[in-house]
Amino acid sequence: KLKDPMFGKLPNRKLPRGIVLTSPMEIEGSTLRMNGANLHPEELRFALLYWDKLSWPNQSFIVSDMSEDEKLLAEMGVLERPEFDFNGDVAQGMLKGYLGVFKEKAQSSPGLWSLSEGERSLSAICGRDEFDTVDSLSVRLARSIPIPGVDMSVEQIIKFKEKRRDELGELRACLENTTQDMNFMGNPDEYLNHQI
Predict the structure, then answer these.
(1) 3-class DSSP assignment, residue 113
(2) Against a cut of 0.85, is the pTM above it?
(3) CA angle at 188 for the pair 185 and 189, rounded to the nearest 5°
(4) How far apart are alpha carbons 162 and 108 in whole angstroms?
(5) Residue 127 reports pLDDT greater than 70
(6) Given CA atoms 35, 146, 191, 12 in this order, what sign does their dihedral have?
(7) Are 3 and 133 in contact (CB under 8 A)?
């Protein structure tokens, strides 16, 4: 109850869901390893399929042109680029910046935002314990479902989502109900593995 802002509340199924994305990076202490400045194409398609809004925080010292897919989604209002600044250690500053954007989104719209993690996005070894919540479990559960390959255009994914809006809504409700159930389990990882 203390850790879950949605405890005892049912999320409005019609409100848009969002996910905070990063380019592929690994943060361990003061070490930052980046694998490109843009979003990973598979990660972008995964996020676009299951979420309505994509937030990709921007730090001014990382300069890169957006890909054609990123530009298109930004023009459509699906992808936003909120700015964040930091002082001091670059790795921890980046981590705090991304987590800060996520925390702000999660506080303003409880239960509607998730944080993408993994080898194609943010992989932080430590310093993010307070964010190990139901949101990360729902992303992990969604990752067990097949996603479109990079050969499928973002336009095709958007058309698919429009055509299958009801089915995607049901899938999202199923994922959210499953992650809510995980709150009541003594071992969320074991329950997650069972659900996958």
Answers:
(1) strand
(2) no
(3) 145
(4) 26
(5) no
(6) positive
(7) yes
